[in-house]
Design goal:
about 45% strand, elongated, mainly beta
Length: about 25
């Protein structure tokens, strides 16, 4: 789990099946 900011919020996750990383706020 990757978090950033205060308070910390989750900004992405790793897909357990593919191992690919997904950003929640991808621009």
């Amino acid at each position: 789990q990757i978090v950033a900011g205060t308070p910390a919020k989750q900004i992405g996750r790793i897909d357990p099946e593919s191992g690919q990383y997904h950003w929640f706020n991808k621009e």
